[in-house]
Amino acid sequence: MNSIRGEGVRPALECEGLTKRFGGLEAVKQVDLRVDVGERRAIIGPNGAGKTTFFSLISGLYPVTSGSIRIFGQDITHLSCNQRTYLGLGRTFQITNLFPTLTVLENLVVAALGLRGIKFSMVRPLSTYRGLYERAGEVLETVGIAEKRAEVVRNLSYGEQRQIEISMALVSNPTVLLLDEPTAGLSPAESVMMTEMIYKLDPKITILIIEHNMDVALQVAPRITVFHQGCVFAEGSPKEIRNNPRVQEIYFGSED
Ligand SMILES: Nc1ncnc2c1ncn2[C@@H]1O[C@H](COP(=O)(O)OP(=O)(O)OP(=O)(O)O)[C@@H](O)[C@H]1O
Ligand SMILES: [Mg+2]
């Protein structure tokens, strides 16, 4: 139902019948999903369930086979990745995606350059991009890792590197942020730090987080969507999902 002004009630993200086929394989099948503004939603599901592919459809990395994607009511199904970023979509990847020989601040500046369609020039010193440095510094302050700004990324712990990746996604000031397994490969202590960082992000940002670690999913998201074989298999509160025998079966049950 729309309000008179047509604002405030649109979901941050709405997918209808979203489908992705890779040759004979339907990796994402007829997915309907609605995430409200400011919501934090965890996406869980066994390996190969289609979670990352689903993110790649939303972010525009892969064209859809069929179906539609809207953010804040606007149809983005056929827009480029950059156009989606301008409209507020941010994303991190399952595999680390940093410039290891640059400093933390420089990594964020490179992310900001990408947003403006400026290719990183080896001949122009990064320090000449003043406004971008300011934006990068601001982001590091808000996520609480400003003291790492001058460190070369390859000297940081893996947990810190993954925090930098989220910071890079925040440079574009996203209103919808997709995090693909931010705690993958982290030690328990690093996972706690990461979870706290995500938990403290601006509550106005709508966050979808793919997470294998149920504890993390339960802490950051009051609502969970379970993917299985490309479909939305279940959706509900952490308690509902934990107590759902069908969900238990796909995680711990039969082999097929
Ligand atoms: N670019 C691609 N080309 C062909 N098949 C692909 C491609 N990307 C993913 N797939 C296949 O699509 C299915 C879903 O993969 P996807 O990576 O989305 O799963 P996932 O739920 O993210 O799994 P995981 O938990 O292991 O990260 C898998 O069978 C995978 O092999
Ligand atoms: Mg994945």
Any chance you could write out the topology, listing elements then pairs?
Layout: E1 13-22, E2 25-35, E3 40-44, H1 51-59, E4 66-71, E5 74-75, H2 81-86, E6 89-91, H3 104-115, H4 130-143, H5 158-170, E7 176-180, H6 188-199, E8 206-210, H7 214-220, E9 223-228, E10 231-236, H8 238-242, H9 245-252
Parallel strand pairs: 3-8, 3-9, 6-7, 7-8
Antiparallel strand pairs: 1-2, 1-4, 4-5, 9-10
Helix pairs in contact: 3-4, 3-5, 4-5, 5-6
Class computed from helices, strands and strand pairing: alpha/beta
In what range is the share of β-strand residues?
Answer: 15-25%
The strand order across the widest sheet is 6-7-8-3-9-10
| H-E order | EEEHEEHEHHHEHEHEEHH
At the fourth CATH level, what is the homologous superfamily? P-loop containing nucleotide triphosphate hydrolases
The value of Rg in angstroms is 19 Å
The outline comes out as globular
Helix content: 25-40%
- Give the names of the bound compounds: adenosine-5'-triphosphate, magnesium ion
Mean model confidence by pLDDT: 89
Count of folded domains? 1
Low-confidence stretches: 1-6
Termini separation: 41 Å
Q: What is the CATH class designation?
A: Alpha Beta
> Mind summarizing the main beta sheet?
6 strands, mixed
Tell how many strands the DSSP assignment holds: 10
Number of helices: 9
CATH architecture, please? 3-Layer(aba) Sandwich
CATH names the topology as Rossmann fold
